[in-house]
Amino acid sequence: MTDQRRSGVEGGGAHGRPAWEGLTTEARHPESRELDLLPTADAVELLLAEDRRGIETALGHREAIARAAEWTAEALAGGGSVVFAGAGTSGRLGVLEAAECPPTFGTDPERIRAVIAGGEDAVFRAAEGAEDREDDGRRAAGGLGHGDLLVGLSASSVTPYTRGALTAARAQGARTVLLTCAAAAGLEGTADLVLALDTGPEVLTGSTRLKAGSATKAVLNAITTAAMVRLGKVYENWMVDLRPGSAKLRDRSARIVAAAGGVDRARAETLLAEAGGEVKTALVMTLRGLPAREARRRLAKAGGSVRRALDG
Description:
- The strands form two sheets. This protein has a five-stranded parallel β-sheet, sandwiched between helices. Strands 6-7 form a two-stranded antiparallel ribbon.
- The longest helix is centred in the first third of the chain and has 20 residues, at 40-59.
- The chain has 13 helices and seven strands.
- Helix 10 crosses helix 11 and helix 11 packs across helix 12 (292-301).
- It is globular, with a radius of gyration of 22 Å.
- By secondary structure, it is of the alpha/beta class.
- The protein has two domains: 8-230, Glucose-6-phosphate isomerase like protein, domain 1 (Rossmann fold, 3-Layer(aba) Sandwich), CATH 3.40.50; 234-311, Helicase, Ruva Protein, domain 3.
């Protein structure tokens, strides 16, 4: 690790600016130096191959990712909140992850949420410069404390907004995770757990919406999904705590009850109606021959786990 890269991570570049040029995410990719001359099919192949390498890199950090998933489950089980904080592509990926948890897992939108540099408008339109406002990041983490978890997202690891959010969250007693795609020195003190994937240079130099973005999204998927499994929001491989707020999800609910409960579609729809649309309740009803009230009681006693409710 060069002194230049180390100073960059610590924010000690020229005039106090991070030395981005020392980060692997800013380096030139040796196989794409003539990207503008490549046939379209070859460019596409290279881009997708690099995405695959990013996922393979993430797989090498599976134990640390599992720890982040367990911390996510612990925060939610204890009544705390989980917040994703980032800027640009990283921030949008955090927003996407938080937005998809309620319909998929029935979580409270206030318990898993995201903050992004530049505010909600930055989700749809780039807010250049917002990522440089460390104080905004500190304010975004306001209100977090013991029992909460903040996951900072920064492909480069040096984004001031994300650093500010992590610093404030730690000072307030919350657990913190930094998910970055630049395995640079000096990151150990930035969060309680650092997931530094080191995905390397991008095909389009510096465009971390590519391989780094794909790897970040994959890790976030793994963290939230594994956490929800631990929280009993999954039975076998069915999403049994989904919110049937659309025709597709209502159909999926009926298909889950029919397949997992071993009944036909008509019976599944009847059970769901009696259960008020609750897939978990309908499953315990059919698999144990119980009325909705007793099925709910069993689920409550089992902490919401269908498997434990069936065994109880």
